[in-house]
């Protein structure tokens, strides 16, 4: 047995509640060694991981890792929110009683760290000094070194963050045990994995994965699921899967801040890292605050909604990242940045990485190239066209590496929010942008956000997989309460943000091309929205919101067919009427949905009928 007290003394970790927690779990998982880590340990841990073959070099200060081939994405079916109150059961949170889940996880974790090191990762999910800091501290215990390296990039890590707590008990207890990955029955009826947030006990127990989305407990489980619950239980804030960016109009000096949610793999990271289109000249600057999580609250001093990114880094999708689509992302993963690539293709002779869309064609010389499973590309069967990189392969880099990160990205005061946007992958019906000024209608729009079902067989034609506010995988309590909480929090603001729905993904059904060029051109839609909020443009009223007229959009230098532009600036009333039926069925699943939301739904439906 490790002498826990001695290890914690040597690490100078003083918080008595944290010490009890570490000792408690060490007795259950029985590690051979315990190590308390901080950001200062990064270089040593990287070297250890390289020596152990957990990482491979990918250029100066760049590294590569593969996760087990059945462990490459978040598992929504195995993710559970447990509490002691059955009323917390929602449609999407897979609610189970805490009394059932906790003993089950303890049994799975018992003795599971024998022969391994338990890393103790004290972290903070907020800029220090934030008004939401009381909800931001946590301690992850993990048995996997690459998880530590990712946590150091994605959150602020060090014992000082838990030793400074006003109440030593207010940290999230986050236990990660990888388990025996080849023997967990991933995706079979005998699946052993469980990813549980015991929300009312602020305890996270994840067993059966070492992939980022399941194993970086500060990010997804704490930053979203736990914080979603805490924001509601405290009555004080919202925690959402939102990107957050700033737009500066250098001519007028005006700054706007836009945040918003798109389901995973729908463009949040790309939008937050966008740059002003070259064709708009030097007038606008876009600044990055966050790409995946925003916590929102109302500042009583000025009555405005404020937002901040609790993360310290970016965990971005690699696929299609290139000089044209996202030069900012490429700049943030340059040699010397400390970036880690996961599950892309890797060349173990030249130590290069590649992913689909990095260059138009894959490298011509196949020597040394291995796909994300570690198999040699040169030994593939003829005609095997499967991707070299996993579609969910990622890069991990710190915010400070992002070239357009805002100067005040760590300001604990956060930034005032002008606009809240929602968007998903919808190939028809949803226009480029439609603005919504009414709070209940904005919340209603968020609740009916969806993206196309991925497998044709599973979906009804034209019907979306709804993903309320992009929080479906992170919803911690019942959706009716969630909607009421949104109305309450944003309703406190004396200056309301404008809402909008955006869509970069309409396609021509004939040949499938995207009607809108997307990526950095998306800024044009956001500029219009900010100008609408300021009364500089008026737009055109439709039953589902205000749309830009063509001459209001900044279209200088944009290459787009007039026919495509016409479609993305129009409302297809027939398709919208059909959608209203789907929405009604979707919303009916939620208990206690506030009457204001139903009123908004009926208003929109009526306006469409009258159209
Ligand atoms: P996130 O998971 O929401 O952060 O989404 P990402 O920004 O990582 O993007 C997911 C995928 O969508 C990537 O393959 C991007 O290249 C692609 N994507 C992002 N923005 C756009 C866009 O405006 N248009 C098109 N066509 N694709 C996009
Ligand atoms: P994503 O973030 O939204 O960029 O995919 C990671 C995740 O949601 O797992
Ligand atoms: Mn996400
Ligand atoms: Mn992202």
UniProtKB/TrEMBL annotation:
Gene3D superfamilies from the UniProt entry: 3.90.228.20, Phosphoenolpyruvate Carboxykinase, domain 1 (3.40.449.10), Phosphoenolpyruvate Carboxykinase, domain 2 (2.170.8.10)
Transmembrane segments: none
Residues binding substrate: 74, 211-213, 264, 392-394
Keywords: Cytoplasm, Decarboxylase, Gluconeogenesis, GTP-binding, Lyase, Manganese, Metal-binding, Nucleotide-binding
Domain spans labelled Phosphoenolpyruvate carboxykinase GTP-utilising N-terminal: 20-231
Domain Phosphoenolpyruvate carboxykinase C-terminal P-loop: residue ranges: 237-606
Keyword Zinc-finger: no
One MF term in the entry's GO annotations: phosphoenolpyruvate carboxykinase (GTP) activity
Pfam family, one: PEPCK_N
Enzymatic reactions: oxaloacetate + GTP = phosphoenolpyruvate + GDP + CO2
Residues annotated as binding GTP: 265-270, 394, 425, 519-522
Domain of life: Bacteria
EC numbers, comma separated: 4.1.1.32
Keyword NAD (UniProt): no
Assembly mode: Monomer.
Its job: Catalyzes the conversion of oxaloacetate (OAA) to phosphoenolpyruvate (PEP), the rate-limiting step in the metabolic pathway that produces glucose from lactate and other precursors derived from the citric acid cycle.
Protein name: Phosphoenolpyruvate carboxykinase [GTP]
UniProt lineage: Bacteria, Bacillati, Actinomycetota, Actinomycetes, Propionibacteriales
Gene: pckG
């Amino acid at each position: 047995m490790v002498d826990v007290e001695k290890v914690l003394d040597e690490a100078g970790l003083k918080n008595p509640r944290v010490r009890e927690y570490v000792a408690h779990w060490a007795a259950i998982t029985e590690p051979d060694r315990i190590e308390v880590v901080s950001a200062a340990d990064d270089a040593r841990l990287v070297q250890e991981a390289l020596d152990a073959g957990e990482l491979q070099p990918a250029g100066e200060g760049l590294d590569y890792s593969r996760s087990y081939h059945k462990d490459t994405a978040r598992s929504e079916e195995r993710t559970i929110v447990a509490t002691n109150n059955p009323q917390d059961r929602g449609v999407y949170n897979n609610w189970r009683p805490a009394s059932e889940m906790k003993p089950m996880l303890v049994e799975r974790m018992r003795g599971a760290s024998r022969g391994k090191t338990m890393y103790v990762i004290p972290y903070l999910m907020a800029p220090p000094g934030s008004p939401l800091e009381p909800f931001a501290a946590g301690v992850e215990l993990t048995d996997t070194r690459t998880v530590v390296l990712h946590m150091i990039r994605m959150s602020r890590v060090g014992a000082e963050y838990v030793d400074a707590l006003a109440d030593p008990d207010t940290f999230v207890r986050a236990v990660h045990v990888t388990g025996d990955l080849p023997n967990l029955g991933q995706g079979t009826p005998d699946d052993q994995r469980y990813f549980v947030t015991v929300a009312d006990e602020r305890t996270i127990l994840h067993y059966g994965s070492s992939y980022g989305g399941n194993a970086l407990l500060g990010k997804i489980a704490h930053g979203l699921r736990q914080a979603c619950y805490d924001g509601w239980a405290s009555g004080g804030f919202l925690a959402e899967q939102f990107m957050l960016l700033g737009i500066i109009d250098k001519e007028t000096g005006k700054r706007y801040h836009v945040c918003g949610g798109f389901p995973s793999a729908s463009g949040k990271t790309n939008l937050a890292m966008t740059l002003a289109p070259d064709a708009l000249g030097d007038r606008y600057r876009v600044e990055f605050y966050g790409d995946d999580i925003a916590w929102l609250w109302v500042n009583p001093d000025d009555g405005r909604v404020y937002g901040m990114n609790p993360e310290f880094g970016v965990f971005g999708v690699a696929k299609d990242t290139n000089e044209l689509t996202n030069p900012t992302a490429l700049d943030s993963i340059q040699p010397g940045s400390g970036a880690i690539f996961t599950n892309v293709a890797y060349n173990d002779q030249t130590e290069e990485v590649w992913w689909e869309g990095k260059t138009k064609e894959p490298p011509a010389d196949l020597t040394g190239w291995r796909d994300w499973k570690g198999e040699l590309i040169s030994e593939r069967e003829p005609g095997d066209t499967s991707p070299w990189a996993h579609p969910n392969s990622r890069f991990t880099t710190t915010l400070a590496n992002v070239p357009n990160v805002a100067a005040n990205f760590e300001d604990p005061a956060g930034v005032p929010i002008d606009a809240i946007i929602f968007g998903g992958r919808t190939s028809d019906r949803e226009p480029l942008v439609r603005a919504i000024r009414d709070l209940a209608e904005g919340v209603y729009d968020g609740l009916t956000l969806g993206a196309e079902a991925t497998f044709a067989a599973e979906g009804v034609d034209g019907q979306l997989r709804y993903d309320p506010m992009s929080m479906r995988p992170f919803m911690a309590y019942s959706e009716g309460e969630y909607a009421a909480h949104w109305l309450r929090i944003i309703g406190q603001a004396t200056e309301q943000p404008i809402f909008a729905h955006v869509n970069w993904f309409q396609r021509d059904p004939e040949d499938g091309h995207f009607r809108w060029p997307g990526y950095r051109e998306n800024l044009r839609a956001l500029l219009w929205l900010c100008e609408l909020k300021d009364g500089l443009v008026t737009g055109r009223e439709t039953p589902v919101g205000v749309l830009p007229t063509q001459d209001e959009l900044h279209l200088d230098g944009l290459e787009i067919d007039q026919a495509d532009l016409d479609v993305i600036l129009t409302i297809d009333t027939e398709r919208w009427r059909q959608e209203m039926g789907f929405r009604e069925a979707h919303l009916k699943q939620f208990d206690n949905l506030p009457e204001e939301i139903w009123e908004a739904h009926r208003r929109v439906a009526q306006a469409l009928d009258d159209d």
